[in-house]
Design a protein that fits this description.
With 275 residues, this protein is mainly β. The chain has four helices and 18 strands. Bound molecules: ligand LBFN2T5F. It is an enzyme of class 5 (isomerase).
């Protein structure tokens, strides 16, 4: 099978984007892993599939982690998605509605090339983060080999555990992040964010992503971290998030309001690959 693809990135969180409207695509887990492999494939953190919507939305957006698992949401990918469908002539609209496994989100392409996305409201319900019975992102203990840690949990459609740390550059993102990602209390596994508060409107963030390991940035991770920071009374309603790959702006007015994310989306190259 020959596949046309586009390599994109949002703050260094990188994607292989495939047009599933103009080419027939059926990929199994192994094929996705191969495409995502940085040595034997194209290389990416996530593979994004553009499809026709089944409902009223403009498109359907499917997301696969580098390990081949399909997931509910991807924030940096949502910005790349709108850039992709626009640049490839699949729509003329600057604002589109896209179906994801966790509902409809609406990205908006700005005149300066940045993209703003209404990411929907954060979810604190126990169904989203199964072991948490309360509706707030308060702090919970989690048993890990060696020592318990405290986490706050929130879903942005996909599950996130957030740790507030004093020095994110020296946080054990790879080691502890991997243990929390596959902790038995998260049966669907979890993305793990390490948040350092630099001020009421500025945080530094690193994320160990479920199914991909540490990435240079995670859009839903940034939303989750800011929601947790606001909920814990540490942050104002609009926050600059510095990641290893660059900066995002996240805002949330609280309660049932949606979370807004603004940041860049960039095409790196296009190509064709034999699978
Ligand atoms: N990089 C993404 C999140 C991708 C999915 C995540 N790894 C998961 O498993 O939920 C983002 O920018 O949000």
């Amino acid at each position: 099978m020959k596949l046309k693809f586009t390599k994109m990135q949002g703050l260094g969180n990188d994607f292989v984007v495939l047009d599933g409207i103009n080419q027939a695509i059926t990929l199994d887990r192994e094929q996705i892993r191969k495409l995502a492999d940085r040595h034997f494939g194209i290389g990416c953190d996530q593979l994004l599939l553009v499809e026709k919507a089944e409902g009223q939305a403009d498109f359907r957006y499917r997301i696969f982690n580098a390990d081949g698992g399909e997931v509910e949401q991807c924030g940096n990918g949502a910005r790349c998605f709108v850039r992709y469908v626009h640049d490839h002539g699949l729509t003329q609209k600057n604002e589109i509605r896209i179906e994801t496994l966790s509902g409809v989100i609406s990205p908006h392409l700005e005149v300066n090339g940045n993209v703003t996305v209404n990411m929907g409201k954060p979810i604190f319900e126990p169904e989203a983060i199964p072991f948490i019975a309360e509706k707030r992102a308060l702090t919970y203990p989690l048993e890990l080999p060696g020592q318990p840690v405290t986490i706050s949990a929130v879903s942005m459609g996909n599950p996130h555990a957030v740790r507030v740390v004093p020095d994110v550059d020296n946080a054990p993102v790879d080691t502890e992040g991997a243990l929390i990602e596959s902790h038995p209390r998260f049966p669907k596994r979890v993305n793990v964010g390490y948040l350092q508060v630099l001020g009421r409107t500025h945080i530094k963030l690193r994320v160990f992503e479920r199914g991909a390991g540490e990435t240079l940035a995670c859009g839903t991770g940034a939303c989750a971290a800011v929601v947790v920071g606001i909920d814990l009374g540490l942050l104002d309603h609009q926050v600059k998030v510095s990641t290893r790959g660059g900066e995002l702006t996240i805002s949330w007015q609280g309660n049932d309001e949606p979370v807004w994310m603004t940041g860049p989306a960039v095409t790196v190259f296009e190509g064709e690959i034999n699978l």
